[in-house]
Amino acid sequence: MVNKRIDDLENIIEVNKALFSTLDTKEILFLIVKKISEIIQVARCSIILIDKDMNIGQIIATYEDPALNTLTIDLNKYPEIVKAVEDDKMVLILDATVDPIMKEVRDKILSLDIKSIMVIPIQYFKGRIGALYLRTSRKAKKFDEKEIKVCHIISSIAAIALKNAHLFNIIREEKLLLEKMAVTDDLTRLYNHRYFVKRLNEEFKRAKRYKSQISCAMIDVDNFKRVNDTNGHQKGDVILADVARIIKNSVRETDVVARYGGEEFSVILPHTNKEDASNLANRIRDAVKNFKFDLLGEGRIITVSIGISTYPDPRIEDTDDLVRIADDGLYQAKHHGKDLVISI
């Protein structure tokens, strides 16, 4: 008897350690059903998420099939789950073929190999309700008192573990959002100047270390003061945001696009030689020129001027040189009529 209690205690301790070994909600849910299935002989062990109207349930973890986590069930066919959730307490059905709770669905379950059912509600965070659902086959014995206590204990531990995981995910998402806000320009949703400088330093050091190429593009919207004077600053902001999207959609995933300041943008092009950088810059220039801006009148266009610099270059020793030479190219593009790409 003592040895049996020790085994039960060790099982509970093992479950506790497992559930608090991760903050991944999906992993916790699978560990719950896995551990219960290892301790208790069941034909079905699942966790079901209940919608607020208690019409639909979604199986979010099941030990029988770890890949099955998106199956939706009609709760009208599961009165035992509805009752457990509504009453917020365990429902124990020792014989599903005769229990009054199953009266409405008895005809449907007679052909199924079901003996006993246990449903324990799990409320883990601000109204989020799940249910631990266990079912035995007719060949198995009924749930005994020890197994019921074990399931209650595991459910309580699981609720705490799930709440901790949920809180952790909220904190992590908020942290990621704050980090993104710290490096993102509010208007264009591109990276800001500070992040551009940081990434340029990192990419330039990498290029020097591995003797690879890196290019920088400085982009300026032509005649933007006239655009603002004609359309107003609010419409000018919308146009800037449109230009930002065009640039972002024209580059590769590995390129870094930032708002350098005002109507000027910058692009870091890792592993890119002068010719490829010029080709990409011309693609941006054409995309902006051919774009139909909703706020502009018929026939009016927006153009950009672009300067390109590329390392290695004997004139370039650091990131300041890289930006300065790209800026020189931009100045020349402006000086020679605008709507140009100049690489120097």
What does this structure look like?
By secondary structure, the chain is α+β, with helices and mostly antiparallel strands. The chain has two domains: 2-166, GAF domain (Beta-Lactamase), CATH 3.30.450; 193-343, Reverse transcriptase/Diguanylate cyclase domain (Alpha-Beta Plaits, 2-Layer Sandwich), CATH 3.30.70.270. It has ten helices and eleven strands. Strands 3-2-1-6-5-4 form a six-stranded antiparallel sheet, with helices on both faces. A five-stranded mixed sheet has the order 8-9-7-10-11, sandwiched between helices. A hairpin with a 2-residue loop joins strand 5 (117-125) and strand 6 (128-135). It is elongated.
Give a count of the beta strands, DSSP E runs of length 2 or more: 11
Can you tell me the residue ranges where pLDDT is under 50 for at least 5 consecutive residues? 1-6
Strand content: 15-25%
Q: In angstroms, what separates the terminal alpha carbons?
A: 86 Å
Helix content: 40-55%
CATH superfamily of the largest domain: GAF domain
- Rg is 32 Å
Strand order of the largest sheet: 3-2-1-6-5-4
Summed up:
The protein is α+β, with helices and mostly antiparallel strands. It has two domains: 2-166, 2-Layer Sandwich (Beta-Lactamase), CATH 3.30.450.40; 193-343, Reverse transcriptase/Diguanylate cyclase domain (Alpha-Beta Plaits), CATH 3.30.70.270.
Secondary-structure blueprint of this entry?
Elements: H1 2-19, H2 25-39, E1 44-50, E2 56-62, E3 71-74, H3 79-87, E4 91-93, H4 106-109, E5 117-125, E6 128-135, H5 145-182, H6 193-209, E7 214-221, H7 224-231, H8 233-250, E8 256-261, E9 264-270, H9 274-290, E10 304-311, H10 319-335, E11 341-343
Parallel strand pairs: 10-11
Antiparallel strand pairs: 1-2, 1-6, 2-3, 4-5, 5-6, 7-9, 7-10, 8-9
Helix pairs in contact: 1-2, 1-5, 2-5, 7-8, 8-9
